[in-house]
Amino acid sequence: TYGASQLVTVEIDYGGLQQSRKVEIPWKQGITALEALQSVAKIETQKHEEYFLVISIDNIIMKIGNRAWYYNINGKRATSFANQCILSEGDSMRWEYTKDVCTHNKEEQK
Predict the structure, then answer these.
(1) 3-state SS string over the chain?
(2) Closest by alpha carbon to 38, among 19, 56, 17, 20?
(3) Quick one: which of 4, 32, 54, 71 is 20 to 30 A from 84 by CA?
């Protein structure tokens, strides 16, 4: 039977720039975090070797050294890139436009 556990929740927090939203989509074997996001939002990615960096969700574009898109799964910060992260049924994924902690301006590096 088709139960509630066969869903994945995708939440997008636009950092106050527009209203956050939460969507439930059907889970399927092998679905990645990137595919789940693409199914509910307009996104832009940048390819770096074998991974994709999400640079824009619904026209909210990352600003290097300022704000960027990060995601977590079930409340835990993701440890892999979105195109390599396989979701399990019942997972809750949250994308947040927040302080860029990964890339630094040269002036900030000491």
Answers:
(1) CCCHHHEEEEEEECCCCCCCEEEEEECCCCCEHHHHHHCCCCEEEEEECCEEEEEEECCEECECCCEEEEEEECCEECCCCCCCCECCCCCEEEEEEEECCCCCCHHHCC
(2) 56
(3) 4
What type of residue is 78?
A: A
- 84 near 51, Cβ under 8 Å? yes
19: Cβ–Cβ under 8 A, 6 or more apart, which residues?
none
**pLDDT digits over 31-87, tens only?**
999 999 999 999 999 998 888 899 999 999 999 889 999 999 999 999 899 999 999
Residue 18: how many CA atoms within 13 Å on its side-chain side? 8
Please tell me the distance from the alpha carbon of residue 49 to that of residue 51, in angstroms, as a whole number.
Answer: 6
